[in-house]
Structures are given as C-alpha cells and as structure tokens.
C-alpha cells in the first residue's frame, strides 16, 4: 500500500505546492494591526457573494415575466432560500463597506505611495466595479421600487450634457426600460463585472506579494524612492513574521466576525421585502436606490438646479480623477496619519457627509409622497359642501402629494396650512393655472368648477 502514501508526494510533484504556494502564504510580512484585515475581509465578502450569487442563479429567471415570481419562490418556498437571499443582500452591504473602508485605510496610512501606486490604481477600479455590482443587483429584484429607481436614475443621467442620451441607451438597452434592460443588467451583474473583478483581484493580490504588505507607518519615517525598497527589505528581514499563521490568524478572526454579522442580519432581518411586482403603469413606488447610492441621490436633489446637469457626470469624473492622480501627486513623503492632518480631515468630512446624506436621502423631503395620502379630518371638519368638494379636488389632483396641510402631505412644495393668509384668491388662481418651476400647471386639466371649489377650500386655510 505504499502507493497510497505516495499520493500527496505525487500531487506535490505535479502541482508544486511546497515549492510555490507554501512560500507564498508563509512569505514574511511586517507585524501589522487589525486595520490590515479589512482588505482580506473584503475578499472573503466577495467570495461569499459569488457563492450565494451562484446559488440564487440556479433558481432566478432573468425575464420580466418570471424574475419577480422566481424571487418570490426563493424567498418564500425554497429551502434556505430566504437566508441565501439575505446573505447576498447583507453581504453586498458588507462588501461595499469593507472595500470603501479598505480604500480609506490605505489612504490614511499612505500605503498608496511608492512603490505601491499600481496597487492603489487597481484597487480604485475594484472599488468602482464593487459599486457597479451594487447598482446592477438592485434592478434584478424587478419590483416596483427597483424598477422606478432605475427610471429615476436614468432620467437623472439623461440630463448629463452631451452624453446624456447615450447613457440612457446604455442603461436601458433601448429607448425605455424593459426585458432587454433586465437581460443587460443580469449579464453585467453575473458575468461581466465578476469576471473583471476576478482579473483585477488577481493583479491586486499579485502586487501585494510583489511589493510586500506595507509596514505600519511611523511618524517621521518618510518614503523616499531611492531608499524605500532597501529599508523595507531590511525591516521585513529583521522584524517580519510569516504571513501564515502569524499575521493571517487576525484576518481569519475578522472575516469570521463579519460573516457572523452578515448571517445574523439575514436570519433576524432577512432580505429586503419584495413589495409589489414592477409595473410600468402604476406609479405607486418608493423609487429610491439602496443605501450605497442614496447619498448621491440625495446630493443631486440638494445641489442648486443650475449646476445639476454638469454635476451628475462631473462629480463622479472628478472623484475618479482624484483617485487616479493621488499616487502620482504624493508618491513620497510622510505616511503616518499623525503627520497628515489634511488626509484625516478629508476622510472625516467624507464619512460625516455620506452619513448625513444617507439620512436625508432616506426621508427624501424633496420628492412628492407617493401613494394614498388624503387630507386629515381636522382640515375638512365643519366645511360647507363647496369647500368639501374643494378638499376632494386637493386630494384628487395630487396637491397633497407635494403640499402638507395640517401636518399631512408631501414636503416637495411649501406647506399650505396657512396659505389663505399669504396669498390672495387671484394669486392662488394664477399659481394653480400656471404651476411653477417644480409644480405642474393645472390650467388644462382642471375644470372651472373644480377650480372655484379648490379656491373655496384653500381660503379656509388660515
Ligand atoms: C409635483 C409637486 C406639486 C404638486 C402636485 C402641486 N404643487 Fe403647488 N407647489 C409646488 C412647489 C415645488 C411650489 C414652490 C414654487 C415652485 O417651485 O414653483 C409650489 C407652490 C405652490 C403655491 C404657492 C405657495 C407659496 O407659498 O407661494 C400654491 C398656492 C400651490 N403650490 C398650490 C398647489 C395646489 C392647489 C396644487 C394642486 C392643484 C398644487 N400646488 C400641486 C409643488 C407642487
């Protein structure tokens, strides 16, 4: 039976793990802290996404007629389906967070500097494609919210100068959203971007090995092209430890922690509710992107409208350019965040802004409230029949969706609770017939009788 014993030796000879892989995982690295585990946790999160994504793809059907039903089946009937969908959803959030945090961390400790510029550049592209995954995944739910979120996104993209229409064509795979759009998002989400991410990850990890894991920065020890490599070699030679197991155990612990949180959230909270199936004829939706894009959505709503068109495309371009130029603008010098207060301040401002924007975006006071809202009883109590009819007009013509009265209604337009004290009957008439910058004109759609009833009602708002 000596033949069996020789199987490992045979495999080793043919594959070469003691000569190739063992040195790789045991290669010496500087002694690093917990912040160095974020990148590897992002890698594990990606792996989890691939595994759960494949599991979902076994049942998911990417056509407008079946996509929603197949997800309903996964969520309600398939064995562990709800958990798998949950892990894929929360895992996506984890991946976006971890990849972003990893970018922030290597920025803060100056690891993008010489000789690791290309590590940074490949990481930048990986960050972009991570967001690409998050973006293309949402539409695959093919429910009302996802459908209308893409419509809103596309109408924003359409306003970009010069390339606006082109962008919409690329997004929709045609003049409007439909089966071709779903197919395109599906192919992009499951084939194209993952393939690109695999390739880039290979390059990224190869470069980590090639240049070594950056040493934790020490204030006053600066990167100098002429001396860095020599200093790094000496440091790793003297104080380095084998990556596995001396440094790698921390990566395992942190990845397990992330995995536990993701699994816990999918069991306790589950995936987002599916809601209603996408229906182009029904505008009863909450067309908001998932949180990873909510901040940008909020930003677009808040900036002055004059710069919006340029901003839509200019902002991501400027951001991308900043990322690409960074390692060339500051290839040498201090790495320690203690000596780079601007870098620390920049990250702090970005984090606080994004948190604030996600918060505002989830309320979206600038968009009309959609769905069934009607005037509260307190606003219609004790009105005469004409005024009552006017209140109905106010509900039916959607005024309530943009204007609050007595604490109910949208925040898109000004609160009208006391409008009778501010505007005369003529001014009200003019406004209703002509609309405004962000208000539709009702001149063509409202009968004179409805108009006078509406005016009678508005006059009661004191
Ligand atoms: C899509 C949202 C929207 C709808 C629907 C809408 N409005 Fe407005 N309305 C606005 C906005 C926004 C303004 C602020 C000025 C502007 O943007 O032109 C405004 C302004 C007004 C004003 C002037 C308020 C002031 O303080 O000067 C009145 C009055 C008014 N709307 C009444 C109505 C009535 C009545 C209806 C229903 C027939 C209606 N609006 C429907 C968005 C809307």
At the first level of CATH, the class of the largest domain is Mainly Alpha
- Tell me the strand percentage band: under 5%
User: What's the CATH superfamily of the largest domain, by name?
Assistant: Cytochrome Bc1 Complex, Chain C
Number of strands: 4
What is the element string, with H for helices and E for strands?
HHEHHHHHHHEHEHHHEHHHHHH
Fold-level CATH name of the largest domain: Cytochrome Bc1 Complex, Chain C
**Strand order within the widest sheet?**
1-3
Distinct ligand kinds: heme C
Please state the second-level CATH architecture of the largest domain.
Up-down Bundle
User: Which bin fits the share of residues in helices?
Assistant: 55-70%
Supply the helix-strand structural class: mainly alpha
Low-confidence stretches: none
Distance between the termini: 98 Å
User: Largest beta sheet, briefly?
Assistant: 2 strands, antiparallel
Query: From the alpha-carbon coordinates, what is the Rg to the nearest angstrom?
Result: 28 Å
What is the molecular shape? elongated
**Count of the domains:** 2
């Amino acid at each position: 039976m000596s033949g069996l014993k020789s199987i490992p030796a045979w495999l080793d000879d043919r594959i070469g793990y003691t000569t190739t892989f063992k040195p790789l995982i045991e290669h010496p690295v500087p002694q690093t802290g917990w912040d160095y585990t974020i990148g590897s946790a992002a890698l594990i999160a990606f792996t989890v996404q691939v595994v759960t994504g494949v599991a979902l793809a076994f049942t998911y059907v990417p056509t407008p007629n079946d996509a929603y039903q197949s997800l309903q089946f996964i969520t309600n009937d398939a064995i562990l389906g709800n958990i798998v969908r949950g892990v894929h959803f929360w895992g996506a959030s984890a991946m976006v967070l971890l990849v972003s945090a990893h970018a922030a961390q290597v920025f803060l400790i100056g690891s993008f500097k010489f000789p690791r510029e290309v590590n940074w550049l490949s990481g930048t592209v990986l960050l972009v494609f991570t967001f690409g995954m998050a973006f293309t995944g949402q539409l695959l739910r093919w429910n009302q919210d996802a459908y209308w979120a893409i419509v809103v996104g596309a109408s924003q993209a359409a306003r970009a100068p010069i390339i606006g229409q082109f962008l919409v064509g690329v997004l929709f795979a045609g003049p409007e959203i439909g089966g071709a759009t779903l197919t395109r998002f599906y192919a992009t989400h499951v084939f194209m971007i993952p393939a690109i991410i695999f390739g880039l990850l290979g390059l990224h990890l190869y470069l980590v090995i090639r240049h070594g894991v950056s040493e934790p920065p020490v204030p006053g020890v600066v990167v100098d092209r002429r001396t860095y490599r020599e200093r790094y070699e000496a440091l790793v030679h003297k104080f380095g430890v084998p990556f596995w197991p001396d440094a790698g155990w921390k990566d395992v612990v942190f990845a397990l922690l992330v995995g536990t949180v993701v699994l816990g959230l999918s069991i306790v909270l589950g995936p987002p509710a599916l809601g209603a199936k996408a229906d182009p004829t029904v505008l009863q939706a909450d067309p908001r992107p998932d949180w990873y894009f909510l901040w940008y959505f909020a930003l677009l709503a808040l900036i002055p409208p004059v710069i919006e068109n340029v901003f839509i495309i200019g902002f991501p371009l400027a951001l991308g350019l900043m990322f690409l130029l960074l390692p060339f603008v500051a290839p040498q010098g201090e790495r320690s965040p203690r000596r780079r207060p601007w870098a620390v301040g920049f990250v702090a401002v970005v984090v606080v802004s994004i948190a604030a924007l996600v918060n505002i975006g989830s309320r979206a006071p600038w968009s009309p409230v959609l769905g069934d809202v009607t005037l509260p009883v307190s606003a219609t109590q004790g009105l005469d029949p004409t005024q009552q009819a006017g209140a109905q007009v106010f509900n039916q013509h959607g005024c309530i969706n943009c204007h609050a009265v007595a604490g109910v209604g949208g925040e898109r337009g000004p609160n009208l609770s006391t409008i009778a004290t501010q505007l005369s009957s003529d001014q009200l008439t003019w406004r209703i017939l002509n609309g405004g910058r962000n208000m539709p004109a009702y001149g063509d759609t409202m009968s004179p009788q409805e108009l006078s009833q509406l005016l009678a009602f508005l006059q009661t708002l004191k």
